[in-house]
Protein backbone atom coordinates (compact mmCIF):
# COMPACT_ATOMS: atom_id res chain seq x y z
CA UNK A 1 0.00 0.00 0.00
CA UNK A 2 1.22 3.47 -0.83
CA UNK A 3 0.54 6.79 0.72
CA UNK A 4 -2.74 8.16 -0.63
CA UNK A 5 -1.68 11.80 -0.26
CA UNK A 6 1.57 11.67 -2.20
CA UNK A 7 1.89 12.48 -5.88
CA UNK A 8 4.53 13.42 -8.41
CA UNK A 9 3.06 16.91 -8.79
CA UNK A 10 3.81 17.68 -5.16
CA UNK A 11 7.45 16.74 -5.69
CA UNK A 12 8.08 19.38 -8.35
CA UNK A 13 5.68 22.21 -7.62
CA UNK A 14 7.57 24.76 -9.76
CA UNK A 15 7.13 22.78 -12.98
CA UNK A 16 3.73 23.69 -14.43
CA UNK A 17 2.65 22.93 -17.95
CA UNK A 18 2.06 26.16 -19.83
CA UNK A 19 -1.01 26.89 -21.90
CA UNK A 20 -2.14 29.65 -24.21
CA UNK A 21 -4.06 32.40 -22.36
CA UNK A 22 -7.84 32.40 -22.48
CA UNK A 23 -9.36 34.27 -25.43
CA UNK A 24 -9.21 38.02 -25.01
CA UNK A 25 -10.51 41.07 -26.84
CA UNK A 26 -8.57 44.24 -27.58
CA UNK A 27 -10.31 47.51 -26.76
CA UNK A 28 -10.82 48.06 -30.50
CA UNK A 29 -10.32 45.83 -33.55
CA UNK A 30 -6.66 45.74 -34.62
CA UNK A 31 -4.77 44.36 -37.59
CA UNK A 32 -2.02 41.76 -37.48
CA UNK A 33 0.46 44.53 -38.37
CA UNK A 34 -0.68 46.58 -35.37
CA UNK A 35 -0.48 43.51 -33.13
CA UNK A 36 3.05 42.74 -34.31
CA UNK A 37 4.06 46.37 -33.68
CA UNK A 38 2.66 46.18 -30.14
CA UNK A 39 4.59 42.95 -29.55
CA UNK A 40 7.84 44.40 -30.91
CA UNK A 41 7.48 47.48 -28.71
CA UNK A 42 6.88 45.31 -25.65
CA UNK A 43 9.88 43.04 -26.28
CA UNK A 44 12.11 46.05 -27.01
CA UNK A 45 11.28 47.64 -23.65
CA UNK A 46 10.50 44.59 -21.44
CA UNK A 47 13.99 44.14 -19.94
CA UNK A 48 13.79 47.64 -18.49
CA UNK A 49 10.62 46.91 -16.51
CA UNK A 50 11.13 43.49 -14.98
CA UNK A 51 13.46 41.52 -12.81
CA UNK A 52 16.01 42.82 -10.36
CA UNK A 53 18.49 45.52 -11.35
CA UNK A 54 21.38 45.29 -8.94
CA UNK A 55 24.57 44.50 -10.82
CA UNK A 56 25.78 43.80 -14.35
CA UNK A 57 25.70 40.02 -13.90
CA UNK A 58 22.10 40.15 -12.65
CA UNK A 59 21.13 42.48 -15.52
CA UNK A 60 22.68 39.98 -17.93
CA UNK A 61 20.61 37.21 -16.31
CA UNK A 62 17.45 39.32 -16.64
CA UNK A 63 18.13 39.81 -20.33
CA UNK A 64 18.57 36.05 -20.76
CA UNK A 65 15.27 35.39 -18.97
CA UNK A 66 13.45 37.91 -21.18
CA UNK A 67 15.01 36.26 -24.25
CA UNK A 68 13.82 32.86 -23.03
CA UNK A 69 10.33 34.21 -22.33
CA UNK A 70 10.12 35.72 -25.81
CA UNK A 71 11.28 32.47 -27.41
CA UNK A 72 8.74 30.51 -25.35
CA UNK A 73 5.93 32.94 -26.20
CA UNK A 74 6.68 32.71 -29.93
CA UNK A 75 7.12 28.92 -29.99
CA UNK A 76 4.50 26.20 -29.99
CA UNK A 77 3.39 25.07 -26.53
CA UNK A 78 5.60 21.97 -26.22
CA UNK A 79 8.77 23.74 -27.33
CA UNK A 80 7.83 26.76 -25.20
CA UNK A 81 7.56 24.44 -22.21
CA UNK A 82 11.06 23.11 -22.90
CA UNK A 83 12.45 26.65 -23.13
CA UNK A 84 10.82 27.71 -19.86
CA UNK A 85 12.05 24.60 -18.05
CA UNK A 86 15.59 24.98 -19.41
CA UNK A 87 15.77 28.64 -18.37
CA UNK A 88 14.63 27.88 -14.84
CA UNK A 89 11.53 30.06 -15.22
CA UNK A 90 8.81 29.50 -12.64
CA UNK A 91 5.34 29.97 -14.12
CA UNK A 92 2.75 31.19 -11.61
CA UNK A 93 -0.45 30.23 -13.43
CA UNK A 94 -1.55 28.27 -16.45
CA UNK A 95 -0.02 30.70 -18.95
CA UNK A 96 3.13 32.83 -19.10
CA UNK A 97 1.47 36.07 -17.97
CA UNK A 98 3.27 36.00 -14.60
CA UNK A 99 6.63 34.26 -14.18
CA UNK A 100 9.59 34.36 -11.82
CA UNK A 101 13.25 33.58 -12.25
CA UNK A 102 15.20 31.45 -9.80
CA UNK A 103 16.11 34.55 -7.77
CA UNK A 104 12.46 35.48 -7.32
CA UNK A 105 12.35 38.39 -9.78
CA UNK A 106 8.90 38.81 -11.33
CA UNK A 107 8.23 38.98 -15.09
CA UNK A 108 4.82 39.98 -16.44
CA UNK A 109 3.80 39.32 -20.03
CA UNK A 110 0.70 40.90 -21.54
CA UNK A 111 -1.69 38.53 -23.28
CA UNK A 112 -1.09 40.24 -26.63
CA UNK A 113 2.41 38.75 -26.79
CA UNK A 114 1.07 35.28 -26.02
CA UNK A 115 -1.98 35.00 -28.27
CA UNK A 116 -4.13 36.83 -30.77
CA UNK A 117 -7.23 38.84 -29.85
CA UNK A 118 -10.67 37.64 -30.85
CA UNK A 119 -11.22 40.90 -32.74
CA UNK A 120 -8.16 40.71 -35.01
CA UNK A 121 -8.96 42.07 -38.47
CA UNK A 122 -7.21 41.62 -41.80
CA UNK A 123 -4.67 44.17 -42.99
CA UNK A 124 -5.76 46.26 -45.97
From TrEMBL:
- InterPro entries, alphabetically? DC-UbP/UBTD2_N, DC-UbP/UBTD2_N_sf, UBTD1/2
**Chain spans, region Disordered:** 1-30
DC-UbP/UBTD2 N-terminal domain span: 16-123
One family from Pfam that matches here is UBD
Classify the source by domain of life.
Answer: Eukaryota
Q: Where is the composition biased (Polar residues)?
A: 1-12
Name of the protein in its database record: Uncharacterized protein LOC107412445 isoform X1
UniProt lists the gene as LOC107412445
Amino acid sequence: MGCGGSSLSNADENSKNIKKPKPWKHSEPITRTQLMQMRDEFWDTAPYYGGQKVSDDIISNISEIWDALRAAAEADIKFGQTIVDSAGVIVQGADLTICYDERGAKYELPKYVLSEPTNLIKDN
